[in-house]
């Protein structure tokens, strides 16, 4: 038994290898940036935005090999078996006002436990927004993370700094399986130096300044859009511009020239998205009336395309007739393996549909689907192996087994591709009916 939640555990280490594989294979592209920014000369608290329920900690868990301890809302620890399971998974409770005033008193214990984790050289991961929501924005940060930092400073050896590590998690789609995810580790905030530099400020003022600084640093790691009445229109405007090939090429060339570096993968997409958001916000600042009219048209088109089952990407990067023909050809070529994947993958997707029938919460559905898939991975492999080698000779059985291994991923990748193809066709047929096409 571990004496402390952060202690090494051979079983946990063994299982983490499997979990890491499962997390990374859940995304078509999984990219980590900025690991070199994690400080090695002090104690570190990891702070991340929170948009995707329990997938956020799973993504951060797999971002590096080092041990980590997470927090979760206290109400899920009520059952004895849940407490034991979560403790094994290195998750500890944190109490909120909504849990009751008496429950919040237990946070002193949580802060003491978190302090011990950080002083032991293990990153303590906390989501200071205190709840999740699928938006390119940030809620007001709670002060719990700063109280933990103050406690660690108070108990740290002299000369050993305490840092808060801002981390941004960016999903291509919050809840679609086999989407993309970018995890960015920003430059750490030296909380020890910050506190020393603001020691003349009253503690509430000092904490407010630190909260503003962390909010700023978190916003720098994501595509940040102010959460106001124009949010939906600005995000729609961003995708219409950023996914247009001409705008993308021109913008990424300007960004890479200015930064004297070659961006790669999802960083390139994020950089252009951020640039398009900046364009929209600049227009709103400099010409509010023009921006209001533009956003009104963008939002009207957004609602129209949703009603007609058309993706924003079909509008931003409209394929020509030949490209559409090639997409159709690829869809036809992939259809046989898609059907095969649907049959052999039924051992995974049928339980998902049955167990989660009636679930309306996309965040819970997404996380539960991952958990069910993780739990069925080994049983599915055993069933495939037994069936194939009992029914066929070993050569055919081996080929079928190899084809089955990536089948579940292909099932979703092909489904996403086909949905985009159908969306492209719909846009071709219906674009003349759009109320007022923009961009």
Q: If you had to describe this structure to a student in words, what would you say it looks like?
A:
Strands 1, 2, 3, 4, 5, 6, 7 and 8 form an 8-stranded mixed sheet that branches. The chain is 59% helix and 9% strand. The model has no long low-confidence stretch (mean pLDDT 92). Helix 5 packs across helix 6, helix 11 crosses helix 12 (288-307) and helix 15 runs antiparallel to helix 16. It has helices spanning 10-25, 55-61, 80-88, 101-104, 107-119, 144-155, 191-197, 203-220, 231-242, 245-259, 266-286, 288-307, 312-316, 321-344, 346-355, 362-391, 394-404, 407-430, and strands at residues 29-33, 43-48, 69-73, 91-94, 124-126, 162-171, 180-185, 189-190. The protein is built from 18 helices and 8 strands. It is α/β, with parallel strands linked by helices. It is globular, with a radius of gyration of 24 Å.
Describe the SSE topology.
Blueprint: H1 10-25, E1 29-33, E2 43-48, H2 55-61, E3 69-73, H3 80-88, E4 91-94, H4 101-104, H5 107-119, E5 124-126, H6 144-155, E6 162-171, E7 180-185, E8 189-190, H7 191-197, H8 203-220, H9 231-242, H10 245-259, H11 266-286, H12 288-307, H13 312-316, H14 321-344, H15 346-355, H16 362-391, H17 394-404, H18 407-430
Parallel strand pairs: 1-7, 2-5, 2-6, 3-4, 3-5
Antiparallel strand pairs: 6-7, 6-8
Helix pairs in contact: 5-6, 9-11, 9-12, 10-11, 11-12, 14-18, 15-16, 16-17
């Amino acid at each position: 038994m571990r004496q402390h939640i952060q202690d090494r555990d051979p079983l946990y280490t063994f299982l983490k290898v499997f979990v890491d594989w499962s997390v990374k294979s859940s995304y078509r592209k999984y990219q980590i940036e900025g690991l070199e920014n994690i400080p090695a000369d002090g104690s570190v608290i990891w702070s991340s935005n929170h948009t995707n329920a329990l997938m956020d900690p799973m993504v951060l868990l797999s971002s590096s090999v080092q041990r980590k301890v997470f927090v979760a809302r206290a109400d899920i620890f009520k059952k004895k078996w849940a407490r034991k399971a979560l403790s094994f998974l290195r998750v500890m409770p944190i109490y909120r006002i909504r849990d009751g005033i008496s429950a919040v008193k237990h946070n002193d214990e949580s802060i003491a436990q978190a302090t011990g984790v950080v002083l032991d050289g293990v990153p303590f991961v906390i989501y200071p927004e205190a709840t999740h929501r699928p938006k390119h924005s940030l809620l007001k940060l709670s002060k719990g993370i700063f109280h933990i930092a103050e406690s660690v400073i108070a108990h740290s050896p002299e000369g050993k700094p305490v840092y808060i590590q801002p981390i941004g998690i960016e999903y291509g789609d919050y809840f679609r399986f086999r989407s993309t995810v970018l995890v960015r580790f920003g430059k750490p905030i030296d909380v020890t130096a910050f506190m020393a530099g603001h020691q003349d400020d009253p503690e509430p003022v000092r904490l407010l300044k630190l909260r503003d600084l962390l909010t700023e640093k978190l916003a720098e790691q994501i595509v940040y859009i102010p959460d106001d009445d124009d949010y939906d229109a600005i995000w729609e405007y961003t995708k219409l511009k950023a996914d247009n090939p001409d705008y993308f090429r021109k913008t990424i060339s300007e960004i890479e020239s200015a930064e004297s570096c070659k961006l790669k993968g999802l960083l390139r997409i994020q950089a252009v998205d951020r640039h398009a958001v900046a364009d929209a916000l600049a227009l709103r600042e400099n010409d509010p009336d023009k921006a209001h009219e533009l956003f009104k048209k963008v939002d009207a088109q957004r609602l129209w395309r949703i009603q007609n089952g058309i993706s924003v990407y079909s509008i931003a990067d409209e394929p020509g007739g030949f490209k559409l023909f090639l997409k159709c050809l690829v869809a036809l070529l992939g259809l046989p393996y898609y059907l095969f994947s649907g049959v052999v993958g039924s051992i995974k997707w049928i339980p998902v549909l049955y167990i989660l029938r009636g679930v309306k919460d996309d965040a819970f559905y997404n996380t539960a689907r991952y958990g069910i898939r993780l739990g069925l991975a080994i049983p599915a492999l055993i069933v495939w192996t037994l069936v194939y080698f009992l029914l066929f000779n070993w050569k055919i059985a081996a080929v079928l087994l190899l084809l089955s291994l990536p089948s579940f991923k292909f099932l979703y990748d092909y489904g996403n591709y086909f949905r985009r193809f159908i969306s492209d066709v719909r846009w071709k047929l219906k674009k003349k009916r759009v109320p007022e096409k923009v961009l």
